[in-house]
Amino acid sequence: MPKIRVTLKTIASKLGISVPTVSRALKDYPDISKETKTAVLKLVDELHYIPNNLALNLRKNKSNIIGVIIPEVVHFFFSSVIKGIMQTAENHGYSVLLTQSQEQLKLEKKHAKLLFSSHVDGLLVCLSDETKSFDHFKIFEEFNIPLVLFDKVLDTDTISHVIINDREGAFQATEHLIHQGCSNILFLKGPKDPLNTIERFNGYKDALEKYNIPLDSSNIKSCPHITRPEAYHLVEKVIKEGQLFDAIFGVSDILSIGALGACQDNGIKVPEKVCIIGFSDSEMCEITRPQLSSVYQPGFEIGEKSTLKLIQEIQHIENDGEQKAEQIILKSSLKIRESSNRILKTFC
């Protein structure tokens, strides 16, 4: 039979004293006798009493809980983000209630309602690939509960968000491929709505324009689900149809790894014939052969900065201060490895 949660009322009943007396004994009030305090503490230990901090905090209109909606948990980049969120929240006295949208709008909406009903003090969200508006988050605004977006966001100046410079990162990746002698670069594009996908495509186009390379629409390949098999079959189809290309840039490492497999299985040497680069710099990049070049995303720092920004907004609201939305843009960097480095290959 399941145990019933022990309350102050339980302790008071067993000792034959009032609930306020138990409460004051636990808080070591001087007007409570030493004998009563000893008896209360002894029974608390025997019955494994745990204070209901949530109820206490709700009376103060504060839960010390941060809600998080994230697309995936079992993912190198997002696991790094989660680590940054959890560590920063813990350091500032907050607990984290983590939910996963699985890139589905309906789950994102469901979790938003759950977190609102859980009385979170604030909300961190990485939008799903299906999300096109903020309508399901309006209730947080109406009740003055701060919201901070990170990584995958929509274009807005009313909600704070933490992102990397996706456009610059994609530009650097494409420019690197051009410096390796590539000019016919396949671009494996993700879902159309998230701002990071749009900005990575813009960075790709910027580099082509800088080096006077015409944008060929046949080189733009859509991978809306961002899976390895999706990229593998797409690139294999391109190879079998005889379309010429000398490089591949995927908006995610998983796409570039799928592309790498397709090239290798069809006898195309990497990087001698085709250079490949990804985006995120996950741990998988060092496992592939050849090792995969990639644009590094600082996952832990994104989680850390997002949480610090949210806590700042929570504190401003508690102090009746106005908080303006802020866009925080972190730097990315290019990690060059064997899959795109023809110059290195020449000297090996």
CATH architecture designation of the largest domain: 3-Layer(aba) Sandwich
Number of separate strands: 12
Major β-sheet profile: 6 strands, parallel
At the third CATH level, what is the topology name of the largest domain? Rossmann fold
Shape label? elongated
CATH class of the largest domain: Alpha Beta
Mean pLDDT over the residues: 91
SS summary, helix count: 13
Kindly report how far apart the N and C termini lie.
Answer: 69 Å
Protein architecture, described:
With 348 residues, the protein is an alpha/beta fold. The chain has 3 domains: 8-51, 434 Repressor (Amino-terminal Domain), CATH 1.10.260; 63-164 and 299-330, Response regulator (Rossmann fold), CATH 3.40.50.2300; 166-297 and 334-346, Rossmann fold (3-Layer(aba) Sandwich). It has helices spanning 8-15, 19-26, 34-47, 53-59, 76-91, 105-117, 138-142, 166-179, 195-210, 228-240, 253-265, 299-318, 342-346, and strands at residues 65-70, 95-100, 122-125, 147-150, 160-164, 185-189, 220-222, 247-250, 275-280, 293-296, 327-330, 333-335. The mean pLDDT is 91. The longest helix has 20 residues, at 299-318. Strands 2-1-3-4-5-11 form a 6-stranded parallel sheet, with helices on both faces. Strands 7-6-8-9-10-12 form a 6-stranded mixed sheet, with helices on both faces. Helix 10 crosses helix 11 (253-265). The protein is built from 13 helices and 12 strands.
